[in-house]
Amino acid sequence: MSQTDLSTRTAPRRISELKLFLFSAACAASVAHGYYIHPLIAPVGAEFGVSGTWLGLVPAFNQIALALGILLLLPLGDRVNNRKLLTYFAAGQLIALLAMALAADFRIFVIASSLLGFATIAPYLVPAYVTRRVKPERVGHVTGILTAGITAGLLASRGGAGVLGHYFGWRAAYWVGAALALAVLVIVPLIMEKDEKLRDDDAPRESYGALIASLWPIIRTMPDVLLAGILQALSFGFFLALWLGIGLHLTSAQMGYGVDVVGYLALLAASNILVAPWSGRLADRIGAEKVRVLFAVIQWIGAILLFVAGTSIWILIVPIILSNFGGASMDVANRTILFGRAPEIRTRLMTVYIVTMFLGGGLSSWLGTAAYAWGGWNAIAGMSLIFATLILGLALWGQHRHNT
Predict the structure, then answer these.
(1) What is the CA radius of gyration of the chain?
(2) Which residues cross the membrane (predicted)?
(3) Hey, which of 16, 148, 174, 317 has its CA 20 to 30 A from 26?
(4) Residue 136 and residue 339: Cα distance in Å, rounded?
(5) How far, in Å, CA of 366 to CA of 349, rounded?
(6) pLDDT per position as a tens digit, 297-345
(7) 8 pLDDT tier (thresholds 50, 70, 90)
(8) What's the Cα-to-Cα distance from 195 to each of 83, 255, 269, 285, 404, rounded to whole Å?
């Protein structure tokens, strides 16, 4: 069977709008679990008797474990039935969430959080699975819908966890998360193909080692993939450091708010999910490289305004919305570039992109808590501005490279 025949068998017509919505919801639920800690970081630290840099290990190890899991597991999506893989990953998340909800020791909590990150593969395997089944001219639109789900999970996790933590204690967020993981475990396999054709029967079968080793030629021959990953690492790092800083800043003695207020701010910021589908359509129309520059400017403006916010929660709303708006749209643009490349290696392209992104996220999670412990809110604002400036510079360079 030729590659053309194989592509025909895995193309269009298979993804209905209902299934696309369910896949997006599954991405939202799966990605949310790693971010309950952000509004709850202060009460979790208080219960376990840890603070500062040590407490920052929870989100940092979660993100680094996620990057490791993607590096070792996501490439299997080009070879192993995706339905089977997603079932295993959802089960792993369920076990980790139950362990976090029941943890009586900080070390157990950190280990379970790391396992949770390692098993969070679904939000990055699903887009590769879905975009193989739509027409090329709809890739940006579909990517926008799926990214809207991921963004909804990122933002709603903070809002929901903050409110649950305020009224029922921080463990309630992890019990609810376990229920969501169970729902994904049951529903997603039902809407996926049981007998998925991933490869040409006549093509030589790669060993697992060769599959992982094939990532390096991708990095070497597709620099735009690595650039997309670095841009998203900085953008995601900006996002994580900002929200960890917000969680610590608003619940500090200086501000005096509860974790529920952090949650309400996150829910307000979640309105940005509405821009993701629009960003995807815009990338289809004018080009993803131009879209990256546009939203890098918006992120940069948001970072500047963080200095103005200071102790005013009302002014803080503006840079939060701008930063989240720019970050979500940046991700859509980057993914649109990736999904325009060869479908037969799409999960490996995603592997390079997501591993780079989460290595940046893990480092930034630790830097965010360390920066706040060192210099308070101004240190978070300064770190955010440095990241936003780097993002804008690289986005402009990427557009110049594309045009030449």
Answers:
(1) 20
(2) 20-41, 53-73, 85-102, 108-130, 142-160, 172-192, 225-246, 261-279, 352-374, 380-398
(3) 317
(4) 9
(5) 27
(6) 988 998 898 888 777 778 888 888 787 777 777 877 887 777 666 666 7
(7) very low
(8) 9, 55, 40, 35, 43
